[in-house]
From TrEMBL:
Its cofactor is Mg(2+); K(+). Residues 90-416 form the Pyruvate kinase barrel domain. Pfam families: PK, PK_C. Pathway: Carbohydrate degradation; glycolysis; pyruvate from D-glyceraldehyde 3-phosphate: step 5/5. Keywords: ATP-binding, Glycolysis, Kinase, Magnesium, Metal-binding, Nucleotide-binding, Pyruvate, Transferase. Belongs to the pyruvate kinase family. It catalyses: pyruvate + ATP = phosphoenolpyruvate + ADP + H(+). This is Pyruvate kinase. One of its GO terms (cellular component) is chloroplast stroma. InterPro entries: Pyr_Knase, Pyrv/PenolPyrv_kinase-like_dom, Pyrv_kinase-like_dom_sf, Pyrv_Knase-like_insert_dom_sf, Pyrv_Knase_brl, Pyrv_Knase_C, Pyrv_Knase_C_sf, Pyrv_Knase_insert_dom_sf. Oligomer of alpha and beta subunits. GO terms for molecular function: ATP binding; kinase activity; magnesium ion binding; potassium ion binding; pyruvate kinase activity. Its EC number is 2.7.1.40. It comes from Gossypium mustelinum (Cotton).
Length: 574
């Protein structure tokens, strides 16, 4: 029986006529009170948006089970974590690691994967395409041969106006009082105290006395002489000078505007994008995005491909057009290092929280990046302030945290990853123990009736899951829509997303609280999907009698002409 009231969808004990499955399910409906949940708008029309809410059903005594595949599609790290910590102990915040010379061997990549790396980031500013291709090949081999599920992201270089290079393969220390030459001339090798700018007009409008800041404050210089297009500068704040560093100019405490007609996507960026697509990367992150146009341009180019487009928010212009950029993209990276160059330091915490809030409202994953554990580029332990910073990002319900130089060039990358893992797990547990439900303004996302129904089902499903204390949420999805809508509400139990599309699986790797599994699903028999997946997990000893799972789906049965059969079911394992 379909349930669709004018103001709410009520979970009731409904006995519905279901055709029997090959799994011999015995439906014993438990009659119990379920807390009602509000559904923001009215549902109109007959035969449209059919919504079924079923009460708890006992699963057990299966007489016939289809022969299970040898691999369930659950990655080895999630499986081990589930065995060790149980459903509610599973980490929900995703972890991104930048891959560099310090962690590019098969052994190091495997250690990062075992440590909880969900996404491997490759910065196209550094190394050759052959190097990146080799890393991608190693990650794919880990996934295929050892059962990991690590997605791959490439990060475009962006406008060349912001980039400097000293030519050395690793970082160089700039000492206070030393004098350096900044030039756009092409250099052979890496001459001492000489820095090459990648844009000929890098010094246009710059005056003697201006301050040159490297990577948001890693080192600072003062311009003491201007010779043609070259700048001679004195180091005023010593620090590390990384390869392919970004820079900015300041005058009287204010950022010097850099007028450039260079496009957001350079020729090199397009070549890197084509490389990434040919290698099957899962995400492309665009640097120096100031408006939504380059995001739309790239998404049009990637039409019908599974690659997702992330926009990096790292400039004042991108903040001013934040909502349109978030709406156009598939996700956001809050690049706090570069952002901190363009806005006052004291505004970074509130800006970070605003970016995270807007992304949640608009159902787009957000990565908090840059300088999370910056001291671990050199030292084996983080500062307590860095751990507090990480915990605050988790408290704000960011989808993911990212290591940059800590993993790419630092000697303690695996330890830095373990600290992210421990800090995020502890803060998630504390939030749940303190019943700190994040207040989310329920901005309506769906336009069509089916999309609005899916949104309301997910909102209600999470409220029910939290109130009923279910152990896990199972969602069956083709493109990941309902999995992301569930994640948006940040439920207490983990979300197991079953999909038969590998592109969807890898994209969901970035969503908070979602454990994606690749399985063969039936479009016509939802009960068969449920029984098969529950039995697969039960056979591995990961489900035990008494465990309660909530089930939702956005799969569209081929025999229904109007819209997807969408339901909320609560099932108890016996």
């Amino acid at each position: 029986m379909a349930v669709a009231t004018s103001d709410s969808i009520l979970a009731r004990s409904l006995i519905t006529d279901r055709r029997s499955t090959n799994f011999g399910l015995k439906n014993e409906v438990c009659r119990g009170k379920v807390v009602p949940c509000r559904a923001g708008g009215k549902v109109k029309g007959k035969g449209k948006g059919r919504v079924e809410v079923k009460a708890a059903v006992q699963i057990g005594g299966l007489e016939e089970v289809k022969k299970a595949k040898e691999e369930m599609g659950l990655d080895v790290v999630s499986e081990e974590e589930l065995r060790e910590k149980g459903f509610l102990g599973m980490r929900k915040t995703k972890l991104v690691c930048t891959i560099g010379p310090a962690c590019c061997s098969p052994q190091d990549l495997e250690k990062l994967a075992l440590g909880g790396m969900n996404v491997a980031r490759l910065n196209m500013c550094h190394n050759t395409r052959d190097w990146h291709r080799d890393v991608i090949k190693k990650i794919n081999q880990l996934n295929e041969e050892k059962g990991f599920c690590v997605s791959v992201m490439i990060d475009t270089e962006g406008s060349q106006i912001h980039v400097l290079d000293h030519g050395a393969p690793s970082s160089v220390k700039a000492e206070e009082g030393s004098t350096w030459l900044f030039t756009a001339q092409k250099l052979e090798g890496s001459p001492p105290f000489t820095i090459q700018a990648n844009y000929e007009g890098f010094s246009e409008g710059i005056e003697v006395g201006d301050e040159l800041v490297i990577d948001g404050g890693m080192a600072s210089f003062q311009v003491i002489e201007k010779v043609g297009n070259d700048l001679r500068c004195k180091c005023t704040d010593s620090g590390l000078f990384l390869p392919r560093a970004k820079f900015s100019f300041w005058r009287n405490g204010k950022l010097v505007a850099r007028n450039s007609e260079l496009p957001t996507l350079s020729k090199k960026d397009w070549a890197d994008i084509e490389f990434g697509v040919s290698e099957g990367v899962d995400f492309i992150a665009l640097s120096f995005v100031n408006d939504a146009d380059p995001v739309r341009q790239l998404k049009n180019y990637l039409y019908m491909r599974s690659t997702r487009v992330l926009a990096k928010v790292e400039s004042l212009e991108s903040l001013q057009k934040l909502k349109e950029i978030v709406e156009a993209s598939d996700g956001i990276m809050a690049a706090r290092g570069d952002l901190g160059v363009e806005i006052p330091y004291e505004q970074i915490p509130t800006v970070q929280e605003e970016i995270t809030r807007v992304c949640r409202e608009m159902n787009k994953p957000v990565i908090v990046a840059s300088q999370l554990l910056e001291s671990m580029v050199e030292y084996p332990t983080p500062t307590r302030a860095e751990v507090a910073d990480v915990s605050e990002a988790v408290r704000q319900y960011a989808d993911a945290l990212m290591l940059s130089g800590e993993s790419a060039i630092g000697p303690y990358g695996q330890k830095a990853l373990s600290i992210l893992q421990m800090a995020s797990s502890r803060m998630e547990l504390w939030s749940r123990e303190e019943n700190r439900q994040s207040i989310l303004h329920q901005r309506r996302l769906g336009v069509s009736l089916p999309d609005r129904i899916a949104e309301q089902i997910c909102n209600c499903a999470v409220e029910m899951a939290n109130n009923l204390g279910v152990d896990a949420i199972f969602v069956y999805t083709k493109h990941g829509q309902m999995a992301s809508l569930l994640s948006r509400n940040r439920p207490y139990p983990p979300i197991f997303a079953f999909t038969s599309d590998n592109g969807t699986r890898m994209a969901l790797n970035l969503q908070w609280g979602v454990i994606p599994l690749l399985v063969e699903l039936s479009d016509d028999d939802m009960e068969a999907n449920i029984s098969m997946t529950i039995e697969l997990i039960r056979r591995k000893g990961l489900l035990k009698p008494g465990d309660v799972v909530m089930v939702v789906s956005d799969l569209t049965p081929t025999h229904i002409n109007s819209t997807a059969f969408q339901s909320i079911q609560v099932k108890t394992v016996v």
